[in-house]
Specification:
Helices cover about 25% and strands about 30% of the residues. By secondary structure, the protein is α/β, with parallel strands linked by helices. It has a single domain (about 60-245), classed as 2-enoyl-CoA Hydratase, Chain A, domain 1. The strands form four sheets. It has a six-stranded mixed β-sheet. About 40% of the residues are buried.
Length: about 250
Amino acid sequence: MRRVSCLFLALAALLASPAHAAPDGHVVVSEEVIVEEMVVEEGGSSRFVQSPAATVPKGVARFGPFRVIDANRAALVDVTDGRSPAAFAAMLAAFPQITELQMIECPGTLDDSANLRLGRMIRAKGVATHVPSGGSVRSGAVELFLAGSRRMADPGAEFAVHAWEDENGRQPGDFAKDAPVNLAYIAYYREMGMSPVEARAFYDMTNTVPNRDARWLNASQMGQWVKLENDFAQAPRALDSGRVLR
């Protein structure tokens, strides 16, 4: 199963920023990335939507879509694909003390099966996921956020969800509700700590939006669906929260 995200990342320009010292004494080097989002339409046409510049850490090492910030932190800054689980494993082999994955610019995935495998690896390694203010987690990257042993989302973080779509253009509603392809996601959410009711509710919510659109949630709204380590995560659930991008 391959998720074709309607929110792809295109790196249009890289503007180097000078290194600066972080509060913990580590030297952090960052780069300004101008991103454009591409929405693939039927018939193969496309359109681009200019998005604000995102500050992406250059880091001390790169492993596929991951950047190592320091001995304890890494960042996810690009789309994942079939090579990403191996890149994650290589990163942890080289930097075994990493305990937090910052999700900064996360458009989604080109390979849903590999993406779920990567999520299970994140969970098994006990790595926390953290979306800082300004961080964007979209499409298949949301599954990776859910994998965190601890999930944190700062005010100003954003999420976008929508239905998956396979190579033949089929989406969840084209299969029976209890078809293996749908139950696979429920099983994944259960492994990530959701109850059966929570897993079904979250999956159904993501599938209310077709793959060509997206439902945007802020950190507080995401906290109404999944457990976050933020005070606002305890707010009453709003079943119709989020806006739909068309």
